[in-house]
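JOB MANIFEST
job_type = single_chain_structure
chain_count = 1
residues = 170
[input]
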Amino acid sequence: MLKRLWQPYLLIALGFAVILAALAWQLARDWPVIATSVTWRMPKSLAGKSLIAQKSGAVALAEIESLHGKGFALADGTIVSYGDAMMWVAKAKDEAAARAMVDTMTRRIAEGRSPFTPSGTRPINGRTVWTLTGMGQSHFYWQTSDKVVWLAISPALAEQGLRELMLALK
């Protein structure tokens, strides 16, 4: 009879082993995303608004892909919220892929089926910045190396926010 007392403990130990293995597998699966996460330091505030939320890795990539559709070869992403200002950073597999992403976005917006109205482009810090309006906000996007950045911000804070972000994300 005493020999049967160890069986419940064995089942409990096996349960913990399964849970630990599942956690280790999840961490190992996500590890490359964490290790290659966009390495920019995000500003603590933007145009007087404090950073209130940040998503990176697989969660951010899923959201970015839901906005732009699949088909872009993305390696990583970050989404940052500063209250009513939002910033998306998509890291492509290389610089050419980031350029293709910007070209595709520009072409799709020009087709007129998006909620954005192009306002032109301008050079800032050696980068071409596309300016848009729509959904009650000012929008800016640009490429830097293998990354594409999109900023959505209230029109009243747009110029200040863009200027601060361009300085912070050199």
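[summary]
Residues 6-35 form the longest helix (30 residues).
The chain has two domains: 2-33, 38-168.
exit_status = 0
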